[in-house]
Design a protein that fits this description.
The protein has about 325 residues and is an alpha/beta fold. The chain is built from 11 helices and 12 strands. The protein has one domain: Rossmann fold, CATH 3.40.50.
Length: about 325
């Protein structure tokens, strides 16, 4: 049985198992995992490993199985095939609270915030600090404000007024508050459900910056996204789902952005479609791949590719400053 250690400062009493895991051992691992709903197989044979200090990107079109994967790892649903391991130990979570107890936190698209409440109230929503003996126990407002400000600043988020309703913040800032909240309450594995889906270019850059910051703090991050360009900026490993199965699993060093985009767009299907479109007059099909091997030919990134990726990341970082300034304004 995994040993327990006292809570570290900043975890608000959360007790985490194995606070310093070995770098080569996954925090969370799925082995040939799957999920069936009656006769419907939503996920089948999926392998996924999440290591500390790395961003694992999960990409896929609508209906690919991303939501089912999130629900298994976050404890909302149980897998019906394969294995689910946390710190090398096979587990079967009954509720999301079981996952939270093991340091797995999920930030959904709706962020679980109340727009009219102040930032500090949303930061501690459902886990408020109290003071005084029962039955006259009351909220420790000063301590919650101080802690929220400290934790947000640790993530690089500086807000002039924590009393402002969180609904007045930009979409990127609200995402970052949700990320900082999950980190504070003891998350070791952070699941982000398409955090940039409804954001513009500048605000997406803000969120990508804080994803990189979470990685630097040693968290294992699962970044769910439709956008291969966003994934390639911060990702260390890429998994592409298609119709509930794992189509691609590759480290950053083994794949280019072009190849990743081709897999995300369904390269094999495009190749098959080329022959049909060739029979339609006025359709240019020369740019489409001839076969599924096209992506494999691009799988070894060269220096120019790395330079382009670095320039893109730098541009996103520059956009972050502008986005934050606009959010304050």
């Amino acid at each position: 049985m995994t040993s327990k250690t006292p809570a570290a400062p900043g975890t608000h009493g959360a007790v985490l198992a194995d606070p310093a895991p070995e770098q080569d051992r996954p925090l969370v691992e799925l082995r040939r995992a799957g999920k069936s709903y009656g006769n419907i197989r939503a996920l089948h044979g999926v392998d996924l490993a999440v290591h500390p200090g790395r961003v694992t990107c999960v990409l896929g079109d609508n209906g690919a199985g991303k939501s089912t994967l999130i629900k298994i790892v976050s404890g909302l649903h149980q897998h019906t095939e394969g294995e689910f391991l946390v710190d090398g130990e096979a587990v079967r979570f009954g509720t999301p609270r079981d996952a939270l107890a093991r340091g797995i936190a999920t930030v959904y698209q709706d962020l679980a915030t109340i727009p009219l409440m102040p930032v500090w109230r949303n930061f501690f929503l459902g886990s408020e600090m109290t003071k005084g003996p029962w039955p006259v126990r009351r909220l420790d407002i000063a301590r919650m404000k101080r802690t929220a400000d400290e934790e947000l600043r640790n993530m690089g988020i500086v807000l002039d007024d924590l009393e402002q309703p969180i609904g007045t913040l930009s979409g990127g800032q609200r995402q970052c508050v949700a990320i900082a909240r999950a980190v504070y309450f003891g998350a070791r594995v952070l699941i982000l459900d398409e955090p940039t889906a409804a954001l513009g270019v500048k605000q997406s850059g803000v969120v990508l910056k804080y994803i990189a910051a979470a990685r630097e703090r040693g968290l294992g991050v699962i970044f769910i996204t439709h956008n291969p360009h966003h994934a390639y900026m911060v990702g260390d490993h890429f998994s592409v789902l298609r119709l509930g199965t794992l189509e691609l699993s590759a480290a950053r060093a083994d794949i280019t952005l072009e190849a990743l985009t081709n897999h995300m767009a369904g390269g094999a299907e495009l190749a098959a479609l080329k022959h049909e479109l060739a029979q339609v007059g006025g359709v240019d099909v020369q740019a489409l791949p001839d076969d599924a091997g096209t992506a494999a030919k691009a799988a070894a990134p060269d220096t120019a590719d790395r330079t382009d990726a670095a320039e893109s990341a730098a541009a996103a970082s520059d956009s972050t400053a502008s986005g934050t300034a606009e959010g304050k304004a």
